[in-house]
Specification:
Layout lengths: L20 H4 L12 H8 L9 H4 L7 H9 L3 H11 L3 H7 L21 H14 L15 E5 L3 H12 L3 E5 L8 H4 L8 H13 L3 E3 L10 H7 L2 E4 L5 E2 L12 E3 H12 L5 H4 L9 E5 L3 H12 L4 E5 L11 H9 L3 E3 L2 E7 L6 E12 L5 E5 L5 E4 L2 E4 L3 E2 L3 H4 L27 E3 L2 H4 L4 H32 L1
Parallel strand pairs: 1-2, 1-4, 2-3, 4-16, 6-14, 7-8, 7-14, 8-9
Antiparallel strand pairs: 5-15, 10-11, 11-12, 11-13
The protein binds flavin-adenine dinucleotide (FAD) and iron/sulfur cluster (SF4) (2 copies).
Length: 481
Amino acid sequence: MSSKMLKFVTTLKATPPKRDASKRVDDFDEIYDEFDLKTAKDQASRCSQCGVPFCQINCPLHNNIPDWLMLTAEGRMEEAYRLSSQTNNMPEICGRICPQDRLCEGSCVIEKGFESVTIGAVEKHITETAFDNGWVKPVTPAIERSESIGVIGAGPAGLTAAEMLRQKGYQLTIYDRYDRAGGLLIYGIPGFKLEKHVVERRQKLLEDGGVTFKLNTDIGTDITFEEIRAAHNAVLIATGVYKARDIKAPGSGLEGILPALDYLTASNRKSLGDKVAGFDSGMLNAEGKDVIVIGGGDTAMDCVRTAVRQKARSVSCLYRRDRANMPGSQREVANAEDEGVEFKWLSAPQAFIGDRRVSAVQVQRIHLGQVDATGRQVPQLIEDSSHELPADMVIKALGFDPEDIPVMFDETALTVSKWGTLSIDWHTMMTSLPGVFAAGDIVRGASLVVWGVRDGREAAEHIDQWIAAEAGIASAQAASA
Ligand code: FAD
Ligand code: SF4
Ligand code: SF4
């Protein structure tokens, strides 16, 4: 083993410098700076090069983490980049926004008493170094193939599949109803977690590699699904999940109560320089308001932190369980607290109060009761605990369900699960229609970018195999005719 490794005993864990909360709330730039080369090398050298690397096992992409950490520790950055990009199409994005505490870093088994290796930050450093040095190049297929693939959805799953298939020489067209590529990377996730030029850089690489983007194109409205199928040898559906879960409570239709994604999209568009009517009219702008965000996931964290940056008067987060039982990343909760967000744990909205516009939320306290079949304690309302919290903007961040894809695509032969996600054969990633594959959130339900990348890679592999098999069948038929 390289003598540069196993330094966790003498080198303390360090995370990239974080901008001070009082400064970072003034803009939408990323809050973490980057490691410099020396710190990246030092932090990578803390890895103990486990024989059975649990970090790698629990990374959805099974990234070869110990090897690229060793290459980084030895300063062999181009080799580190070549290795890390073999298994991940968006390492600089995953390095920024994977919930590492629940994935690779959460599984790092450095001896008890020492903290995990900062894997995500090193992954980001490797790829940013590669971009700075011009090592990241557009895909260059060895041969051009005549078969074409249509990808519906330019989020991480669709972009990844397109890159992998283009590398194999297929003709790729990505359709998206938005005017920009990236899916939730561009319009969902705020700039303070992921700056937008990072997403745009990926789109440009794909364009330079010969992938065609047809944006502002809603499949089911602008072009029928049938037309897409007729135009391509195979189709990948990677449309994500966008139907916001709602809340049933008196007053829930009052003005000033908004779905999270409308709010975040308006803010992201504004940061990208767009004119956003709803924002300029004040409807989607938290400035000067008492804001309450309902929910305990990453979307809720993004909403509270966006409201802080828009200079809301106060920002609170209502969640019906406690901190230990929330689905959002603990890192993001800590960042939100530093930025001045107040968390109201074990609290649930019962009604929204106001004449035309919301002016307050009636809230009841919660007690966590017995564990149910899902293994989680059931929230129970505490009697006589009702109270009002002033609010002139309420943001609902309660999660997302899939849109009705068979209706959207006017294709009843596409089968869905009981949750409305597209049913696929997991061995082939093919839907109930031959030659139509699916990947990402539309299959898994609301998930993570890294799973979208993994699905995109696997779908590309299966599409390639299916096209080869179809060609084999066609030539056998021709020969026997
Ligand atoms: P999406 O990214 O949703 O992309 C789907 C694309 O399909 C969209 O561009 C959409 O416009 C397009 N589309 C849909 N229907 C049609 C149609 N009919 N015609 C044409 N185009 C269509 N994950 C993390 O790992 N870390 C995070 O920090 C994180 N933060 C998040 C914050 C928020 C606010 C949200 C909402 C999600 C977050 N996620 C995070 C989850 C992550 O963004 C998603 O899991 C991931 O983007 C899913 O990728 P996808 O490609 O399946 O779908
Ligand atoms: Fe960790 Fe995500 Fe990178 Fe995998 S892709 S190594 S889980 S940061
Ligand atoms: Fe290195 Fe931690 Fe992975 Fe072990 S689990 S190989 S120490 S990063």
